[in-house]
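As agreed, record passed on underneath.
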Amino acid sequence: MHPLDRQLNQRLKLLFDRAKASQESRECYKILDEALQMLAQEAQKYPFGSQERRIVITLLSEIMLPGLWDKFLTPQERSQRLKSTDDVARQRLGGVKKSLSAKYGNLPINPSFNYCWDEALGNTQKEFLKKIDIYQRGVDFVLFDKWQSFRKQVAKLLPKDELTLTPACQDFIQAVFAWQRRLERRLTKRQDCNPAILQKLTETCQTFGNAILPAALLGDTRLDEEWHKFCDEAKRYYRPKTVWNWFAMLLIYRFKDIIIREGRIQLEAADAPVNAAEPESGSKWEVITKKIPKREKLNQEILEVIEEDRYGIFDSKHINKQNCTDITFRAITLCKNRQPPPNLTEIQAHFDNRVNAQTTISPFYTRCLRYFKPILKEFTSEDTSLPLPPEVLQQIEDDSDGKFENKRMSKDSPVTFRSTIQTRREVTSWKLAANKLKVEVKDIIGFYLDCLHEFKLIPPDKTRTRRNNPLVQPNPNLGDN
């Protein structure tokens, strides 16, 4: 037995002995929460994929979801692994399933409720294990993921001087302020929120932002110290959940995602024309749309990238009509993703009825999604390389007919499409590439996207249906774009 396995089992035995001696279910619930919290915090100490982390995660899963392990064990093995908190753990999971069954168990969709439940439970386990590092850290997974990418980027940068580190630090600072805006939106919905809290949050983020570059210059240890100090401050602005409540919340969201997907795949009404008549009372579509909350049309991380628009690229594309320069891709995206989701008539009214939503706004939005797809994929990926197929990168590098080298950013500019790709491949971000080429970030990204589409270097979508667009989820209110 691994020493860590032995150590954790000894600590858990003390907790389970307390639960066994207690006659109150409330005490067993409390002990279960203590055990899960201890293991979640222990898992954070070890890198993803390490033997130690697998040991901790296995124990965590056994305790939190004992029913899933029972099916793989013999009766003798099952009696050996029996924990005094198993009954309350089963009750908790059973309570979530019972609640969802009461709300959605009779929906007229296939596959069955139990099939959707099993898929949701599997998806939730994967998401939970992926995001366990943010448990009680005070930050969301988007910022934590940015932090990990930033740390890897700083480790690769040489020399470790102010000129080299500044662009990467500035990019991460923008991610911190984007997190601040997300948290502010959540805080303002709380009754106990007041201007002093928001002001303190602003000061916390500004202090951390000012400390990043000096810390990066002093080395990894100092940078980690500043990050942990910031996380400790961030904990003050959220209401911590127990490990189980966090898992249950994720499970409910993932279950709803699945029944939304299955319900809309089967119903042709989702693709009905905008002006189609309302479905008949009592129809399957009416039952499902009343019970299932509307889903956001864009992946949340992509939506946040567009809303932040750190380089102004998403506001640079607007409808090419008189007095319509404010009807940009970003403005349309934010409008379309309001809650509740607006229909085309409401979108058109939002822009003062200056253009037709069905014939102008929707086609423009769809074209922009296709145009910005490479950069959106890049901005939401942990990988810092260009998201282009190897054969495309080789084609640009070979440049057999010289067309990529002859394509210039402007008539007198020394920056060519080929040199742009070569420079971007040498660094980890467009900001670093822009600094190296001595151009604006927005201009170089726009040039890059223009060239990709001019030279047809991005494979076209297989179909033009919204369902097959990886960036977009179907929305019955908006018809087919």
About this structure: The first helix runs from residue 3 to 21.
